Structure prediction request, 747 residues.
Amino acid sequence: MKLKLRHKVTGLALFSALLPAIVLALLIFVQERKSTHIIGEQLDAMVAANLDQTTRDIYNLCANANDLVQLQVDAALGVADHLVKEEGGLRLGAELVRWNAVNQLNDEKRGLELPEMLLGEEWLGQNVDAAKPTALVDAVRDMVGGTATIFQRMNEEGDMLRVATNVLTLEGDRAIGTYIPAVDPDGTPNAVVSTVMRGDTYQGSAFVVNSWYLAAYEPVYDSRGEEIIGMLYVGVKRESVDSLRRALSSIEVGETGYAWIMPGQDKMGRGRYEFFRDGAAEMQDISRVRDIDGRDYIEDIRKKAIRLQPGEVGTEDVAWQDASGNVRYKEIHYAYFKPWDWVVGVTAFEREFDRPHQEVAHAFTAILKHTLIGAIATLVVVGLLATVLGGWIARPITYLTNISELVAEGRLGQAASQMEECCQVQSGNRQLVHQQDETGQLFRAILKMIRNLNALVGGVRDSSRQLAGTATEMTDTARAQEGTVQDFGSSSSEIAAAVKEISSTSQELSQTMNKVSESARNTAGIASAGRSHLEEMREGSEGLETATRSITGKLSVIAERAQAINAVVTTIAKVADQTNLLSLNAAIEAEKAGEYGLGFAVVAREIRRLADQTAVATQDIEQMVKEMQSSVSAGVMEMDKFNEAVRTGIDNTAQLSGQMENIIEQVEALTPRFDSVREGMSSQAVGASQISEAVANLNLAAHQTSASLQGFKNTTDKLNRAVQAMQDGIARFRMDGDKPASEEEPS
Prediction:
């Protein structure tokens, strides 16, 4: 699938916007459970720590209340001791008093008689009416508050009977006649009685008649101080500590959780506990409460609690069914406050503490939801922006792509025109070509490239045309030089033939001169032999005249041939000069052609070298020909003179008789001249041989020049083909003013 640039830009922007959202959503999704678990554990730990702290706070409240009440009890006990001493002390009287004793723990009754208990000298009596004052106990209450009681020992076991008290029964009467057994109904020693019977003061919680008190029990000795006859009690009812109850009632444990207290080791109070919720206290029977497995978890908590160290907190997770039959889970934290025998604690329902877990989960879900919504919104916004920006970015690129296609197709003129038009299009009140971003730089670079390419193609086209013309001229020149060299070869052949003919003529002339010399000798012999041979001398003179004319003719032919050789040599010199000029022009054109003309420059230098050699050879030939012409002219002049002499001799043959001696002498004088002419002819023959050899070398140079010109022609042909290929390539590019391909004339 082929995507356009604007689509790629849009897709890239959408992907860039969507990827972080997807990664973030995946991270949120992956980290949700882990984070929820970690946060849940931390929340559970915080809840547990909070419940532990609340339990410790309750424990500390009890401890503080105990300390405050204990201070009050201690103060009351001090006041009671002080009053007892002021009244003269407690002692037993002589008279017996009848009592109907009632066990405060199990209401067991029994009758007995005991010595009267005296305060000073006064019997305390048996006052049941709360409206009537009782000595000492009411005075203590009036002074420091609380309750006070005087106990009398009933028996050896240590049962203690209330003989004077301001503790009231449920009916509102003074609780005299009730006693504290030394042994509880379960057979365990009573803590208060056993402590007092050891001679110690008991301080702490105590069950008094029908309720629990914070009390102090002090042993009362007889007048000798040896035997315990009873005990003195002061105490404050625990339920009367309003500040503690208000504090417990104000404790909030979640939405429906609560604080509670229940007895620890007190068997009488088991199965009941008091809980505090919504600012109120409520007593509840929990003896039948079980978890979903039927376990008496309350009893388990009690047993575990009484084994805890002071301030130590225990926990218990319980699953139970509510009144609607729904299974619920609660977490119980507890501690044991030993001074009051209280198991204190808090109960929290897990579903209430699951709410932070749910809120965390909902928060992660909301984050994920908002992330997705934000991602979608971002995707829409980015998509719109990417579409606009993609079009804005891709539009000039698309335009440049079209321009590049025109350049690739060779339509440079059209590309340049469109670029010039594009440079005038306003974009954001700024010309595209003047923008300073990458688009403007790209526009300017491509515009500059097209202009440079246009100029380059035009220059290359002109250069190719000029190079084509130069190559054509070089080809024509090579052809002309080749023809000239061929003509030069022909002329060289003609020169060689003429030289051969001159050489042959010179040899014939030499032979003739030998004959003439022989004739002259014969003539001299004849002349010396006598006048009788005058006719023969005349005939010989005529033959000599004929031979002289022949020699003159031969010398004329030699002069003409020498003149022809001189003309050919002149032609060869001109050809050499023209060749040198053409090779110079070829070297100049090759230099213009650059690397395409390197081969032509080498060939041109070789041709120039050969032309120089040819010019030197022609100069040598010209010099030889001039020397030969000089020799021939001298021979002709001598022969003319000789011919004139012969004619004169013939004309004067009749007169030779008297002048024979003179003729003989002249004939004899001619012999050296004939020898000189013969030597000149020999020299001429040698010069002709040298000319022939030079012409042969010139002919060889002509052949070499022809071969070089053939190579030069081949090179120019290759140059023509390269130029044609370059012109064909340049023809693909059409610039301003060029005709379309369909309108171009065929070449």
Q: What stands out?
A: The radius of gyration is 79 Å. The longest strand covers residues 90-103. The chain is about 65% helix and 15% strand. Residues 456-736 form a domain with the Helix Hairpins fold (CATH 1.10.287).
